[in-house]
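Morning, I've got a small favour to ask if you have a moment. I owe you a coffee for this, so here goes:

…
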Amino acid sequence: MGVGDQLLIDVRREPDRVVIRLGGELDLANAPLLQGAIEDADVHGRSMLVLDLQDLVFIDSTGLRIILWARERCEDGDREFAITPGSQQVQRLLAVSGAGEHLRIIPQADDLLV
């Protein structure tokens, strides 16, 4: 299985947000693909970036680092950032690392942030 087969990245541009839906595994081998997708997502002119993790089944510390980098990038650009819940493994990593306390988690990618 090649790197491209392990991580699905789907970018959807809405009037108020960019949603990047992830599926499969986000790890050391393919984290640069997500970083590139975030850099290329053309978030400018949109007020929000949402990483939809609902189809993500695995994440390692490198993947978590990219998610935290994306949050920081949004904050630096005065944009909102949110994620949706992933698998139990993803949620466990967020809880154990403490990162979940610093991320806005919304139930669905199209939900409004409050």
About this structure: The beta strands are 7-13, 17-26, 48-59, 80-83. The two ends are 40 Å apart (CA to CA).
